[in-house]
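Recall that a protein's primary structure is simply its ordered list of amino acids. Everything else, from secondary elements to tertiary packing, is in principle encoded there. The following example makes that idea concrete.
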Amino acid sequence: MSRIGVAFDKAKADGRAVLVGCMPAGFPTVEGSIAAMKAMVEAGVDAIEVEIPYTDPVMDGPVIQRASDIALAGGVRTRDSLRVVEEVAATGASVFIMTYWNPVEQYGVDAFARDLAAAGGTGLVTPDIIPEEAGEWLAASEAYGLDRTFLVSPSSTDARLKMTVEHCRGFVYATAIMGVTGARAETSEAAPVLVSRTRAVTDLPVGVGLGVGTGAQAAAVAGYADAVIVGSALVRCVLDAPDQAAGLAALRALSAELAEGVRNPVR
């Protein structure tokens, strides 16, 4: 059984997509990141992707890189990220972690899975580990009942796409563009095709990320995807704000706009 499946079932009953909001743990501080994520939930975000800040990002664009740098400079650690998960999960929202693999390996794969499950997390998105190299994580996720989300992209062959989704549980993360994260003026034309190809080989929900930053874009993506994943645009609300109060206000406003978008999909 998928832990995050509850959020997808509820959204499906409402005839809409799940809205996922992303924020690095510890940005701008540990307490500040908890406040930011709770504000997103209060404004209509269904699920929170807690990102573990990492020194050598692969797919993060400049906005998330800057936020992660601030978190790392403030001394955030993996245990802090797990505390963030616990605090935000207490709101009733679905909470999962996105992380590069090195922090999990350093923490200990089984111990990380154990502690993530204990904190109320639903699972992991792992952008830099492929199923063929994830044996230890596959075993740990089974042992602790966690979801595991691997990524597919427009360049994935049919064979690779099928193999990848067979190892997913919870949902599949479809990267809408070939490149790093960041809000863009227009959503990807390749994304609907990728979602269609993915649905042809799995019954799992398909979430689309990379590039969404407005309510109109969220509505467009919600018209063909099961989840709309938003990161950089939300992070920028805090990054560009003169103080915490202004950042939280901007974050609530954008979260509400995005939530309205997924509730009015363009089909």
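Strands lie at 18-24, 47-51, 94-98, 123-125, 147-149, 151-152, 172-175, 206-209, 227-230. DSSP finds twelve helices and nine strands in the chain.
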